[in-house]
């Protein structure tokens, strides 16, 4: 027993002189305090990076401006019966609506109630927008016009639920992209 205690003291002395015998001399192992400081520094750097990225990220109104751009152009593509272009703008509208909902999936009202924008979009996408998509697929201008108008009512219902009744969508009077030729028979160059 005395021999074991003596060996323990000897090893303790060696380990005290060389904290990690596996490391070359002159290199000390990290202490718990060093690890904690390193972890804290990494977390601070990560938080700073998240804050920087948040500052660069767009807000929901930007995504919705894109929705308005694409949906306005969709109207003119449908009116000119340019169905491939209508399909393009329809798909872009849906994509940007999903983007907007990823930015803010749930809105809080002034009363503290939650408006589940994701659920509203799912309902609108499968009903009202679904009808617009069917009209495009069927190349039916009358059905397209009627379903487009109904979808605007659905959009407005969402705006009202989100306490933004002043955002009143309407049938566009001019295309959002005056550079695009909506004529399906157009040739290039003009």
CATH homology-level superfamily of the domain at 60-161: Oxygen-evolving enhancer protein 3 (PsbQ), four-helix up-down bundle
Query: Largest beta sheet: what is the strand line-up?
Result: 1-2
The low-pLDDT segments are 2-11
Annotated CATH architecture of the domain at 60-161? Up-down Bundle
Number of strands: 2
If you had to describe this structure to a student in words, what would you say it looks like?
Strand 1 (106-108) and strand 2 (114-116) form a beta hairpin. It is built from seven helices and two strands, in the order H-H-H-H-E-E-H-H-H. The chain has helices at residues 2-17, 32-56, 60-79, 83-103, 117-126, 128-138, 141-161, and strands at 106-108, 114-116. The chain has a domain at 60-161: Oxygen-evolving enhancer protein 3 (PsbQ), four-helix up-down bundle (Four Helix Bundle (Hemerythrin (Met), subunit A), Up-down Bundle), CATH 1.20.120. The protein has a two-stranded antiparallel sheet with strand order 1-2. The protein is elongated. The protein is mostly helical and 190 residues long. The longest helix is centred in the N-terminal third of the chain and has 25 residues, at 32-56. Helix 3 runs antiparallel to helix 4.
